[in-house]
Amino acid sequence: MHTTIEPGILYFGTPVVLISTVNEDGSANLAPMSSAFWLGWRCMLGLAAGSKTPQNMWRTGECVLNLPSVDLVAAVDRLALTTGSDPVPAMKRHKGYCHVADKFAVAGLTAAASETVAAPRVAECPVQLEARVEAVHGIADEDAILKGHIQCFEVRVQRVHVDRSILMDGAGDRIDPDKWRPLIMSFQQFYGLGPRVLGSRLGTIPEAAYRTPDIDRARKAPARIETAAN
Question: Do 147 and 138 touch, CB atoms closer than 8 A?
Answer without folding.
Answer: yes
